[in-house]
Amino acid sequence: MADRVYIETRKPSWWTEQHTSDWDRVKGALKRDWEQTKADFSIKSGENLNQSAADTVLQASGAEALPVDGVRSRESDAKAAVKEAEKARENVERESVRASEISTKAEGQITRERIELSEKLSDARDELAKEQGKATDQRVAAQVKAGERVADAREKAAGGIAKEHEKVERANARREVAIGKWKEAEEVVRYGYSVRSQYPATYVWDDKLEGSLRGEWEKLDPGMSWRISRSGIRRGWDFADQKK
After folding, report:
1. What is the DSSP letter of 121?
2. Predicted confidence (pLDDT) per residue in 116-152, tens digit
3. Under a CB-based contact definition with an 8 Å cutoff, are residues 195 and 149 in contact?
4. Do 153 and 120 contact (CB within 8 A), yes or no?
5. How many CB atoms lie within 10 A of CB 239?
6. pLDDT at site 175
7. 149-180 core/surface letters (b: 16 or more CB in 10 A; e: else)
8. CB-based burial label for 100 (10 Å; 0-12, 13-18, 19+)
9. Per-residue DSSP letters for 184-208?
């Protein structure tokens, strides 16, 4: 109910119940396609629904019934199951290789830092041994100085290791962001898909159309700028063209 209110408050003046009905059907098809895409990329939040591009188009047009959430479009036959298993194995192998490379790189960096630390510790000990042959006052000062160098070397080594871990975390974060979230994308795709019905089948996307849509989008004040929303709106427009 909350989602329905959110959509209704941002509908254009030409919006009808038919647009709502058409979009609800298309939204279900695109959402299944979205889940399948994430599953194909081995994202934990995705769900393998055996959803093909053809299934998405047929479901969006109403030519094929939209399955219940979580139900696959079709049961995999033996060959498809083998292919799917092989694809899953390849994905696991790729992720394993990538993880191994990252781990090897991090371990190499850690090893280098440890060697450098060991060398610095050795140098500090040598210097300390030399200072011990001097007067007592000088020995105390040398011990303090060597201790500072050891602490500094350890801090630098720890900083280098932390940076490598940060690189791994940033890489994982970028991958998740690249997939995106359905709820954030739905409104702009819905608008592009539905607005296509307001123009003849032969009408093409051009600068004049874009200017008109931009003006309407900004009046709707959806909380997302045209620059950020344009690609999603265009995607919805192009998907609607595939059905014509």
Report:
1. H
2. 878 887 887 878 567 776 756 766 675 788 788 868 8
3. no
4. yes
5. 20
6. 47
7. ebeebeeebeeeeeebeeeeeeeeeeeeeeee
8. exposed
9. HHHHHHHHHHHHGGGS-TT----HH
